[in-house]
Amino acid sequence: MTRPGRRKRQASKIMKIEGVDVIPLDVKLQKVFKGGTYEVKSRPTIVTRIHLENGIIGETYGGDEFHTQREIVSVIRDHLIPQVIGRDVRDSVALWERMFGLPLDLGNRGLHQLDMHPRGIIAQAISAVDNAMWDARAKLFRTPLHRLLGGCRDRVPVLAIGGYAAGPGEDPVEAVKKEVEQIVSQQVHGMKLKVGSAAIELDIERVRAARQAGGPDFVIAVDANQRWSTRDAISFCVGVERAGLRVRWMEEPVVWYEQTDGLRMLQHKTGIPITAGQGEISGQGCRDLVTKGGINILNADCTLCGGVTEWNRIANMAGLMNVEMAHHEEPQIAIHLMAAHPHATYVEVFLDRQRDPLLWQLPVGFPLIRDGTMEVPQSGGIGIALNSYFVWLNRGKESIVLDLRATGDRALLDTMVSRADVLIQNMRPGSLAALGIDLSKWRTSNPRLVTCSITGYGENGPYARRKAYDLLIQAECGLAAITGSPAEPSRAGISLVDISAGVTAYEGILEALLRREDTGVGDHLEISLFDSISDWMAVPLLQAKYAKAPERVGLRHPSIAPYGAYTCADGVRVVLSIQNEREWLALCTQVLCSPDLASDVRYGDNPARVQNRQLLDAAIERTLGRLASTEVCRRLDQADVAYGLINELDAVLRDERLRTVQVETSAGRVSVPLPPTCRAHAGETLGAVPELDEHGPALRREFSPSGGSPPAA
Fold first, then answer.
1. What is the pLDDT of residue 390?
2. Which partner for 299 in 55, 128, 326, 574 could form a disulfide, CB atoms 3.0-4.6 Å apart?
3. Looking at the domain assignment, is residue 668 inside a domain?
4. Are residues 139 and 151 in the same domain?
5. DSSP states along 380-425
6. Do residues 220 and 362 share a domain?
7. In what order do the strands lie in the sheet with 573-577?
8. Separation between Cα atoms, residue 539 and residue 398, nearest integer Å
């Protein structure tokens, strides 16, 4: 029985914040995006992680400030982290007030407008920490964030952000039509169109083009990014209304110095709902937009205004004042806020992956968009994690983006292949041919080239065109049938099929390179996921064909006993592995202290022990269940009996046997397991993880015949 005082101390400990990580990112975009008052050349953000003492990690990212990103990170590291370390993560308001009330001087002048800049830095720092703490809280309570905040719905309608200024030579009206058609094709029923970079008459025509391309039910909002005077904003809104273009809202219409009187005047002149607030850094500023500016929709940003804590207070205030809530970008966290309030509108997403590459690279399993809505993640917390696969698979590589349909990029690829030793491709069978690429021709022009094609079920045959993923192959090859408990098959805990194909390809390529040393000629290898894992399934397949198929036995060996997991008195599970009669005798006499068990005819040899496994397991459990795991391990070590502990991943990370190495990424240094091949020299290092197209310019210069940068088309 646990005493109440002890239970309280244990509960308090697991809620405490043990550490905070902050990682700045800034990814250069492939092109410049121009809005009404600004242009975007990169996608910055800040990753924040909150570590609780029980191993839970709250993790999110957000913010797009690049001018002061370094200062924001410094405020978090130098000032905010000491305010939250050792505190109970459940105390959301108390922790927020500690950060907000910190008397921090970043060069304040005591002048309201001039001091807004340093206060904006502090607000964004608070937001980063607060948002990660909310992820940790929701994970602690094992509930998705939107349910912890109120839980009004499980799907939220989507608006695609677009309509940036047309590029050189582009017709701005036709560009909008084309973009809306692409948005509709992706099952999104609305768009937030950038306006303000063109003449008012042209912007009205761009809205008309969006309406014609999207149809009568297509949702159109417009965003001027504080570009217009009040008079110009009125002219635009009146023109759009007269044209019957049915705009859902007009966002940030007037210049900064016309807030809030200009907004109030515009609100009296148009029936279009007015939206503002994305740059506000406090709830009080949002309040003034409603009471003094008369706006209809608040689009506060929780990565700017003070985090989820302050955004939620703003949303509750807005609801009492009959004002709708929107959220400026950041769908990875906005999806939960939009789902938590009945008066919330849309979640905003950049469908153009060039505009927000992090959205499509950094989170794992980002929610799918279907029928114009996005499903709210249902796992604990915000429901995103950093893409570990990207780090693991791309360390030490160089990255270039090529458009294989563009003449210039295709010529560049031909040049690269002509100098290559190995080319690996895993496109769907037939895809290369559709692009006019023939691997045999490349090997003819470069006879020493080794090519390797990795497919799901082979390049030919009736299954060649079938889509193939790791879990599907695990099911089809029989691996799932022998994995799991007797009640149900299971997926292997890692992507075993993908890894087997990679290892098989690696082995085959090394063999081909060794043969080339003798023949001077390369080769072509065909590797399929199904073939690779089938080779690893040889033993159970042979058993099924010539003896008896192995059964699913969970954490036990199908043909050896005792070989499985047993629970000690402190709840730790120990896996025993008895491989011979000497070990069986040592287990009985030195570990279990039951010599009569060793002489029991029911357990006289391994076949007998397997046949009577249930009785034997019960006898072992009775003894080990009375002993602490430390004592069990001591006896097993002394008896020289093989065993292992079932470790959770956080325990593995603390294990001194785990060798790791630091890898540089755009998100900072990441600790990864050291590759298992040990070399004689010390100081093992691995190459950095590249950003998308990070080495594109250098590789184009290297492989361009002229030594310059060849055009893409």
1. 62
2. 326
3. no
4. no
5. SBT---B-HHHHHHHTT-------TTSHHHHHHHHHHHHT-SEEEE
6. yes
7. 563-567, 573-577, 643-645
8. 39
Mean pLDDT of the chain: 89
Q: How far is CA 119 from CA 110, 306, 466, 555, in A?
A: 12, 11, 56, 56
Judge if 231 and 349 occupy the same domain: yes
Q: Any idea which of 160-174, 539-553, 595-609 has the lowest mean pLDDT?
A: 539-553
Residues 276-288 pLDDT 10s: 999 999 999 999 9
Catalytic residue among 343, 524, 557, 695: 557
Distance CA 362, CA 667 (A): 10
How many whole angstroms separate alpha carbon 27 and alpha carbon 33? Answer: 14
Query: Locate tokens 């055009």: which residue?
Result: 711
Which of 387, 406, 428 terminates a domain? The answer is 387
The H or E element that residue 444 is part of is helix 439-445
pLDDT value at residue 2: 36
Torsion of CA 534, 535, 536, 540, to 10 degrees: 70
d(CA 388, CA 385): 8
| Range 658-669 average pLDDT | 69
Taking the C-alpha atoms of residue 90 and residue 294, their distance in angstroms, rounded to an integer, is: 36
- Whether 112 has a pLDDT exceeding 80, the answer reads no
Looking at the fold, whether 162 and 116 belong to one and the same domain comes out as: no
Do residues 219 and 356 both lie within one domain?
yes
- Return the amino acid letter for 427: M
Is the domain of 428 the same as that of 333?
A: no
**Are 664 and 369 spatial neighbours (Cβ–Cβ below 8 Å)?**
no
Instruction: State how far Cα 313 lies from the chain centre.
Output: 28
Q: Are residues 61 and 96 in the same domain?
A: yes
DSSP 569-624: TTS-EEEEE--SHHHHHHIIIIIS--HHHHH-GGGSSHHHHHHTHHHHHHHHHHHH
328 shares a domain with 217: yes
Give the domain extent around 443. 420-546
Cβ neighbours of residue 149 under 8 Å, at least 6 residues apart?
308, 312, 336, 337, 340, 341
pLDDT digits (tens, 9 = 90+) for 52-111: 988 888 989 998 887 888 899 999 999 999 999 999 999 999 999 999 999 988 887 776
CATH number at residue 499: 3.40.50.10540
pLDDT band at 145 (very low <50, low <70, confident <90, very high): very high
464-483 CB burial, b ≥16 within 10 A, e <16: beeebebebbbebbbbbbbb
* 524, amino acid identity: H
The enclosing domain of 292 has a CATH number of 3.20.20.120
Residue at 334: amino acid letter: A
What CA–CA distance (Å, rounded) separates 460 from 482? 29
- pLDDT tens-digit profile of 416-454? 999 999 999 999 899 999 999 999 999 999 999 999 999
557 classed as catalytic: yes
685 in a structural domain? no
Q: CATH no. for residue 94?
A: 3.30.390.10
Q: Look-up: residue for tokens 């050792």? A: 86
User: What distance separates the 2 farthest-apart alpha carbons in the chain?
Assistant: 99
Residue whose entry in the numeric block shows the structure tokens 């022998």: 482
The tokens for 694 are 């990070």
**Residue 515 confidence class, pLDDT cut points 50, 70, 90:** very high
Total number of domains in the chain: 4
- Predicted confidence (pLDDT) per residue in 189-248, tens digit: 899 999 999 999 999 999 999 999 999 999 999 999 999 999 999 999 999 999 999 999
